[in-house]
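DNA ligase (Acididesulfobacillus acetoxydans), 713 aa
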Amino acid sequence: MDEEPTKEGRKKERKPDGSSEQATAGNRGTKPGQDGGRKREGERISFLRRQIEEANRNYYGLDRPTLTDAEYDSLMGELLEWERKYPELVTPDSPSQRVGGHVAKEFNKVRHVEPLLSLDNAFDAGDLREFDRRVRSVAPDAEYVVELKIDGLTVAISYENGLLLRGATRGDGEVGEDITANVKTISSLPLRLPEKILRLDVRGEGYMPKASFLRLNQEREEEGQTTFANPRNAAAGSLRQLNSAVTAQRKLGFFAYQMLGEGVGQVETQSGVLAYLQRLGFSVNPEFRIFRDIEGVVRYCGEMAERRHQLAYDIDGLVIKVNSLDQQRNLGFTSKSPRWAIAFKFPAEQVESVVEDIVVRVGRTGVLTPTACLTPVAVAGSTVSKATLHNADYIGEKDIRIGDHVLLQKAGDVIPEVVTVLAEKRSGAEREFVMPGTCPACGGPVSREEGEVAYRCTSIRCPARQREAVIHFVSRDAMNVDGLGPALVAQLLETGLIKDAADLFTLKFEQLLELERMGRKSAENLLQAIEKSKERGLAPLLFALGIHHVGAKAGRVLAQTFTSLERLEGATQEELQEIPDIGPVMARSIRQFFTLESTGEFLTKLRLAGVKTTSDTGSRQPLLAGQTIVVTGSLKRWDRRGIEALIEEMGARAAGSVSKKTSLVVAGEKAGSKLEQARALGIPVMDEDEFSRWLAGRAKETAPSEAAQPAGS
């Protein structure tokens, strides 16, 4: 940082607007337009930028303000004046770029370099101790880092050659939205790193401080606008503003907690990651703690539950992580979350309400779900007027009656649920609820299968089932038809333009134009999205079909194994049960689905419409079909999620532990007990270079003898 100019180093100088000011040692005798002045002007601009960014770092990152608000505003004002006069000198990392003003038409999609996974939740000390037991079965000497769980919006920031390149939302974990212009307005986020790092990806939480939230809501109330329910909603809405000038006014903060890319190899622990991020200029939440045992973690969770309301920002829990990065790699991931981390959620806020009625909703599989209609009440930051009651057994166990006073909370601070009935407040006018004997949507018969808690409508023509089935069919993980939401699905069914999801592929432009609020451009976009969905392939299609018990992961497993819908249709229950992850219940459900006459009619319509019913491997057997492969240790060529996704795409099962059924172990650096187990069991082992060459050989259909082969090749 440059030294502050002394009195002796000052002399009168003209500002960009022509007025005079004291010149600093950085620009003595400079006048815009004077011979050689441009260099001096550039030096002055650079000096101002350094002063402002240093002030930002001291204020937001170190909590040590070095300038008054007036001094800061004066420096920023002068910088803006210079840059307005000489726009060619504006750079992407200038503090002026935080002011905002970029207006986007829409957000572009961004694929994350590694997925942003969700965390499993713990709600009490018992859950934490169970997490500790699982961790110590793999890493007996593990210690934990506990960080506050900031209640905001997860953001991924990418740097290239030390400069902020892109900011993106979490999205679905795989793909987010480009909000670069908005994240640049966050003063605690460095626009340029102090080290020239080729590539760095930083994850963290964008949040709105309580003071900013209260000020924003007060301003909106004065202007007659609706107010935000809580700081999290306000932060999410601010970061997803199309006009970044609005975001800049909201005064958001950012806490960094993870990094990928260069620099990761310099540290060995999560606490080291936090220290390195802070050294790079990021704000790191100062409340993190390190514990050698789970009981220290339990005590700290209790302490923060009491202190949470004293913080300047909202938190909804804490995140517990194994400190050692090597132990994190050994613990690995499930399909949805890391095994080395868990989120402790604070006990939910409970409030009282009244059950005014109980209504029944019919889902896509025909399940009848009772829902409580409640006297509206504020709980955990939003107004609640409905809560699912799940099923008849749930209502019976809690003895919930229409007219009851009940205690409500949000499960995980998200989903409203009835905790208990306040039976002492009953007047005798309350009414017991009985599940209907006929479907409330179509009047068809309702049945309850043996061993199940759910009542179901058995009519395949039930309009409620059809609506929910179409909504599921076009959802993101299924056929992913952009622009086709629940309201439009309902309109298409009500007008008779479609009777089921297969009819979507026969829709005509002129038909769509007859719908309410449907313009020509919207109709064109919808037809393009429907046409594009035909090429999604077998795995998303199997999930879209809504087969009972078959989720997105099972759809991928089935697609990898059978490669075509025709082969799957002909599979026996015994053949299905031989597949890893496909148990007898799912296998029976799959067979039942394909024996229904309505299923055959539906699939015929899909085929006639040209919907792709094969996997990407076509009629060929996947390269690694039938293999079970375990990856262990740290890799250079791939990240863990990337190589496991590749393994599954090629038809193999990416397993987390070594057994006699393991075909191959891919071992990176610092491979531990899994490598030892593989050697003891005589299982083939490859490093990542050997594995890469072997894959290339398989792709070229080389003979097995030309490369090391796993068992069962």
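The first strand starts at residue 11 and ends at 14. The first helix runs from residue 37 to 61. ok done for today
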